[in-house]
Amino acid sequence: MTVLDRRRLLIGGAVAGAGALAAACTSNSPAESKNTADQRTQSPASPGKHVTIGFTAPAANHGWTAAISENAKTQAGRYSDVTLKATEGTNDVNQQIQQVQTMIDAKVGALVILPFDGKALTEIAKKAMAAGIPVVNLDREFADPLAYRTLIKGDNHGMGVSAGNFIAKQMAAKNVSKPVIVEVAGLDNLQLTQDRSAGFKAALAAHGLSVTARQAADFTAETGQKVTSALLQANKKIDALWNHDDDQGIGVLAAIRQASRDKEFLMVGGAGSRNAMTAIKADNTPLKATVLYSPSMAASAISLARLLGQGRGLTDMVEHEVPAQVTTYSAVVTKDNVDDYMVVGFA
C-alpha cells in the first residue's frame, strides 16, 4: 500500500460520520435521533448527501501550487457525491475575493480556500462562514480563526527541524565536528520562510551546530542558481546545504555542478518534488534527501470539506466532529524510503 493510499484510508476511507450531533442532543424526536445515529456510523467511503465544494487557490505558476489544484480535482473526482466548482488560479487578491463571493452567492455546500494572501482573504472567508458555509482553510492561514471551520496546513517550522536533524545525524556519522552548513532559503518576507529557517536553526543548535552562511532566493530555479553560486564562491569548503524548495533546487544543483563541487557535500531539499525524488533514488547528485511539504494536503482538504458538508466526522477519533486543525508531518525522504513517497511527488 502506498503512502497516498494510506493517507486516503485515514482521511478519505477510514473516515466516518459524526455530524448532526447537536440535533441528536437537542431533538426529542426518535426518528431524528435514529437518522443522526445512522449518519454517524455510515462509512464515508460510501455515498452520502451530495455536496458541492467550491475551490480556489493561487495561480499554478510553481510546481507545488500546480499540484495543489491537481490533487484537489483528482480527489473530488473519486467521490460520486461531490461536485467540485474549481475556479481559475489567481494571484490577484481582488479576483480571488470575487471568486469566493460568487461561490457564496451560489450557496455551495463547503469551501476550500488556499488564499494568495491569508490576511486579505480573511473577511470574505468570515462572510462565507456567517452564511453557513463551512470553510476549509488550506495551508496559508487567515488572520482570524473565525474565518474557517477547519485549517489543514503543512509544518514549515517542522520542515526546518527535520532538515536540521537529518544533517546533524549525517555529520555525526561522518565524524565532522564543526561542519560548514549553508542554507538557501525562499522569500524572506514570507512567514513560511522565516518559520523554516527558525526550525532549522533550532534543530542544529540542539546538536551544537549552526548555520555558517545563509542567503534567500525567491523559489525559482534562476534565483536558486544565482544565490548558490554566490554561496559557493564565498565558502571554499562546505559540508552540508539545505535548500528550502525543490523547484528552486534545480538551480541550486546546476550551480553546484557548474562549480564542479558535486562530490564535496550533501544537500537536502524541501517540499518533495518528483524530480528531487528521482535524483535521490538515482543517488548520483549531492541531493541525498528532501523534507516533505506535500501538496497532497489539498486532497485531504477536499475530503474534510465533503465530511463537513455532509455533517460527518472521523471514525478513528473519539470526537464526533472534524477537527479544527490538521498539521501534516514533514517526513524526510531518502534513497531508503523514496519508493514509498514517490506517489506524492509533484511535477
TrEMBL record:
Cellular compartment(s): Cell envelope
Keyword flag Signal: yes
Domain of life of the native organism: Bacteria
Keywords annotated in UniProt: Signal
Region (Disordered): 28-50
SUPFAM superfamilies: Periplasmic binding protein-like I
A Pfam family it matches: Peripla_BP_4
Keyword Methyltransferase: no
Stored InterPro entries: Peripla_BP_I, SBP_2_dom, TAT_signal
Periplasmic binding protein domain location: 53-311
Bias (Polar residues): 28-45
PROSITE patterns: PROKAR_LIPOPROTEIN, TAT
Family, as annotated: Belongs to the bacterial solute-binding protein 2 family.
Name listed for the protein in its UniProt record: Substrate-binding domain-containing protein
Organism: Actinoallomurus vinaceus
